[in-house]
């Protein structure tokens, strides 16, 4: 694999551009949309991205130039094509198209979820993991099998991070909710029963979030936060373990912003140790949304001929990871493995 | 004798009795862990009995204790080794009866269908639940078709035969089988 790719992420709150080659991240410049109150306002997030697009792109090109990589060295432009907030995706796609045309290089449309998986495979020793991807909007368990990343389980309603945020807003904790819930949970003394909803391999968090809010009437913030975390994390760890058993793989990779939670990591670590599997967590900068992961999957796709024309570069807010033809993993990758 | 253990339970056979025990997970908070194991054990036993009442041969439940079920050991041959069109049509009838009773199996494979005393038994209701939606039923049938495809050469004939049996006993069969095609296109539940 060879090449240099500039990638732009901007599916939600973080606008981030990065330049990578096969060896490492050469440069990365980000600017986050920070709502004055509450959660992400899609239109305001998109306006933020429009306002700062040239700043991050110029910044990343300048940073790369200082390291000896010029704009003329860039082989392709990649961007988050989805899933994400429509207005944000369109803004970022417009910037990517303009860059591709002006530099006269191919355009690569990247699935945001798969970028999380691939940056984890790049930056940890994981080679063929079951990935638990938990963020604000997404909660999925993914694994590669026969030319595609299959979704083994996913949320039927809202993402885990979003469930935390909804609860936090009702509880007056501010946004994002996860870190504050984690703090309160540390000083809990009781577990309160809350709805545990795993349907086959799928998850549901919306009722859990509502029940946690209702529980605040009779219980302390500490106990509710603790019980919410314990219940929600047990659900995702269970589905991850089932996917491990089903696929007979022996690695687990954690991805997404909720992966910053220490208790979630601890639970996954225990589960993996007991099953004899290896557990991998990338360093923090590659866990949440970042430009480097979009640039890196862009490089993998560019290198395997997976590029698109500007005319066919529409964004897809509901872009599923299992729609993507995985051109960058050789077909004989799963040697000896079947079923 | 130890049989294949899943992610959730360990199973063994003792003196013709099949014992399934949901094991404790140390990553889980203790009270939550106990609650989940107990609730699921109870629910599984109830679904096994309800399915039999609906006409689907299932193991007889002998005893339930905390997170352990003792039941009849169905010492037959898994359908994945012997399936043909005739048997596939019979499976269609059984799944129709199960779905009509509001039960979704959740893990329908030809390993969980056992030929015993000339009858087809359905086993392993560990992922089963009560639901009447077209989607849940569609996923159930889709999972079964996937095992046909991955392990049997004449899977198209088997699918046709299944559909014949399924339509015979279930009014909403067409709607479900239509959804199966849609689910297939989504490429999930691999």
TrEMBL record, chain A:
Gene3D superfamilies: 3.30.420.40. Substrate binds at residues 133-137, 165, 178, 182, 261. It catalyses: L-threonylcarbamoyladenylate + adenosine(37) in tRNA = N(6)-L-threonylcarbamoyladenosine(37) in tRNA + AMP + H(+). This is tRNA N6-adenosine threonylcarbamoyltransferase. It is found in: Cytoplasm. Its EC number is 2.3.1.234. Residues 31-296 form the Gcp-like domain. It is an enzyme of class 2 (transferase). GO terms for biological process: tRNA threonylcarbamoyladenosine modification. Its cofactor is Fe(2+). Required for the formation of a threonylcarbamoyl group on adenosine at position 37 (t(6)A37) in tRNAs that read codons beginning with adenine. Is a component of the KEOPS complex that is probably involved in the transfer of the threonylcarbamoyl moiety of threonylcarbamoyl-AMP (TC-AMP) to the N6 group of A37. Kae1 likely plays a direct catalytic role in this reaction, but requires other protein(s) of the complex to fulfill this activity. It comes from Methanolobus vulcani.
From TrEMBL, chain B:
It comes from the Archaea. Residues 1-190 form the Protein kinase domain. GO terms for cellular component: cytosol. GO terms for molecular function: ATP binding; protein serine/threonine kinase activity. PROSITE patterns: PROTEIN_KINASE_DOM (PS50011), PROTEIN_KINASE_TYR (PS00109). Keywords: ATP-binding, Kinase, Nucleotide-binding, Serine/threonine-protein kinase, Transferase, tRNA processing. Its EC number is 2.7.11.1. One of its GO terms (biological process) is tRNA processing. InterPro entries: Bud32, Kinase-like_dom_sf, Prot_kinase_dom, RIO_dom, Tyr_kinase_AS. Pfam families: RIO1. It catalyses: L-threonyl-[protein] + ATP = O-phospho-L-threonyl-[protein] + ADP + H(+); L-seryl-[protein] + ATP = O-phospho-L-seryl-[protein] + ADP + H(+). The keyword Kinase applies. Belongs to the protein kinase superfamily. BUD32 family. PANTHER family: EKC_KEOPS COMPLEX SUBUNIT TP53RK, NON-SPECIFIC SERINE/THREONINE PROTEIN KINASE. This is non-specific serine/threonine protein kinase. It comes from Methanolobus vulcani.
């Amino acid at each position: 694999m060879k090449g240099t790719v500039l990638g732009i992420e901007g599916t939600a709150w973080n606008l981030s551009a990065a330049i990578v080659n096969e060896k490492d991240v050469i440069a990365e410049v980000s600017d986050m949309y920070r709502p004055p109150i509450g959660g992400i306002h899609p239109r305001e997030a998109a306006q933020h991205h429009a306002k700062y697009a040239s700043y991050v792109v110029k910044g990343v090109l300048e940073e790369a130039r200082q390291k000896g990589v010029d704009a003329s060295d860039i082989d392709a432009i990649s961007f988050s094509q989805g899933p994400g907030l429509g207005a944000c995706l369109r803004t970022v796609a417009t910037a990517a198209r303009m860059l591709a045309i002006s530099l006269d290089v191919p355009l690569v449309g990247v699935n945001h979820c798969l970028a999380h998986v691939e940056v984890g495979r790049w930056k940890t020793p994981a080679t063929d993991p079951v990935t638990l991807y938990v963020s604000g909007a997404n909660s999925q368990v993914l694994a590669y099998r026969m030319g595609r990343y299959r979704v083994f389980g996913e949320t039927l309603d809202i993402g885990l991070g979003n469930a935390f945020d909804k609860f936090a807003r009702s509880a007056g904790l501010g946004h994002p909710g996860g870190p504050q819930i984690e703090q309160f949970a540390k000083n809990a003394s009781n577990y309160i029963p809350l709805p545990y909803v795993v349907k086959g391999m799928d998850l549901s968090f919306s009722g859990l979030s509502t029940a946690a809010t209702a529980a605040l009437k009779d219980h302390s913030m500490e106990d509710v936060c603790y019980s919410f975390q314990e219940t929600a994390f047990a659900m995702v760890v269970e589905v991850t373990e089932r996917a491990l058993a089903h696929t007979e793989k022996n690695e687990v990779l954690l991805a997404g912003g909720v992966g910053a939670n220490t208790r979630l990591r601890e639970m996954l670590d225990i589960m993996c140790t007991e099953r004899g599997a290896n557990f991998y967590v990338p360093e923090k900068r590659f866990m949440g949304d970042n430009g480097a992961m979009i640039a890196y999957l862009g490089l993998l796709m560019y290198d395997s001929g997976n590029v698109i024309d500007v005319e066919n570069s529409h964004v897809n807010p509901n872009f599923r990871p299992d729609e993507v033809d995985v051109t960058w993993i050789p077909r004989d990758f799963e040697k000896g493995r079947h079923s | 004798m130890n049989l294949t253990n899943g992610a959730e339970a360990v199973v063994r056979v003792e003196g013709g009795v099949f014992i399934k025990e949901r094991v404790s997970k140390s990553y889980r908070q203790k009270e939550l862990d106990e609650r989940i194991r107990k609730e699921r054990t109870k629910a599984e036993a109830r679904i096994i009995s309800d399915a039999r009442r609906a006409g689907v041969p299932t193991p007889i439940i002998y005893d339930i204790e905390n997170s352990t079920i003792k039941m009849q050991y169905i010492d037959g041959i898994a359908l994945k080794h012997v399936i043909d069109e005739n048997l596939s049509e019979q499976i269609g009838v059984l799944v129709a009866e199960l779905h009509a009773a509001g039960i979704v199996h959740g893990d329908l494979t030809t390993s969980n269908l056992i030929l015993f005393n000339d009858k087809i038994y359905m086993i392993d209701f560990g992922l089963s639940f009560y639901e009447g939606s077209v989607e849940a039923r569609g996923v159930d049938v889709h999972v079964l078709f996937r095992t046909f495809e991955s392990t049997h050469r004449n899977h198209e004939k088997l699918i046709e035969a299944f559909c014949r049996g399924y339509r015979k006993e279930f009014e909403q069969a067409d709607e479900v089988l239509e959804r199966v095609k849609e689910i297939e296109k989504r490429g999930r539940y691999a």
